[in-house]
Amino acid sequence: VEKDGTRVFDLRMRAGRTEFRDGRWTPTWGFDGTYLGPTLRAERGEKVRVRIRNGLDEASTVHWHGMHLPARMDGGPHTTIRPGAARSPHWTVAQPAATLWYHPHPHGATERHVQRGLAGMFILDDGRTAALALPKRYGVDDLPVVVQDVRFDGDRFDHGRRIMQNVGFLGDRTMVNGTLSPYREVADELVRLRLLNASTARTYSFGFPDGRDFSLIGTDGGLLERPAPMERLRLSPGERAEIVVRVRPGERAVLRSFPQDDYGDAWQRRFGGGDDSFDVLELRAAERLRPSPALPARLAEQETPDGGGAVRARHFDLRRSGINGRPMAMDRIDETVTRGATETWTVRNADGMPHNFHVHDVQFRVLEVNGAPPPAALRGPKDTVFLASGTTMKLALRFDGPADPTTPYMYHCHLLYHEDEGMMGQFAVV
Ligand code: C2O
Ligand code: CU
Ligand code: CU
């Protein structure tokens, strides 16, 4: 902490080797360590500064996914850090408690940088949320769960994309927090999992094989109005969710990803990962569990706009070639929005494969999915949404950050292969 109260973090991007399997050392990249990065944590109203040093031999960036912050601090492709150089973005946290994350964003190379291990969680807190009776002991009953899929070829990662995998790289096994075959001992009745899909292309449908339900309490940008019980929850790349699951004494509860009927056509289910199933994390419950208080009936007021007073409606057609028919161009600002304005954005997957849609800087509200009210899983603050082929979503967004006509923010498909190929556009707030 600096004199003026700024909370300071140090991150060094570096290359190294990681022992995922006994005695086998895989070349990886990480922040500080050799794979992934530390969980950063700050509070609403707090000033933060992150001192980033690039110890890699190529240029990269660090983007704060889900964070509301000035465009110059956002870590998009315009603000790369050369090898050996440093950069210290800083901002004031001005949003509710949430599970965010950080990862590189160099134009055309994001998939590769994330696959090698550059990603970490950024948890935000606020006073109201801290006062709620939720599991909140980090690493005890409040667990970060960073889910990635990988494939090995000998000692190395195999990042090759199979010919029919038009969504991008798909691995043949999953890791949690950089660990293969992960399990966690728990000793509380209720366990909160902060799920982050940090995979580059794979979409998961989480649930438990015994059919138990769990409570969704938070989405990308913070808590829901009230807990929502469900048996399955889909997360596409970049999306987060906070769920609370009840465990029984002595049991082993397995968080699994299930096949997805509504993922796409038979081709996509087969080759795009929709038919796949993985055991993601085993929770090993102690014989005696500490009692947990019941979840609060009400969690948080929604701060996202409800679409009332929207001054502008925009439309975005997603196709693998680009957004609205155009691939990303670094020197073209596609959309200009007015500071303080609320808009509706209608996003349509006009393609034969699944995509998703992520917007920098804002948390938005999903108003409609194919003309109907959104399901519970899409009722909290969101910055990334999954769109199966043929899906249309109407979103309400408000842009209330500082104006900056020259530094744009991004919106893009977060299937990183697609993003790198050019499924990305830029907007400036003026
Ligand atoms: Cu998670 Cu443009 O990023
Ligand atoms: Cu982002
Ligand atoms: Cu896509």
From TrEMBL:
Keywords: Metal-binding, Oxidoreductase
Family of this protein: Belongs to the multicopper oxidase family.
Protein name as it appears in the record: Multicopper oxidase
Residue stretches making up the Plastocyanin-like domain: 17-126, 317-430
Organism: Streptomyces fructofermentans
GO molecular function, one term: copper ion binding
Domain of life: Bacteria
Keyword Hydrolase assigned: no
Keyword Phosphoprotein attributed: no
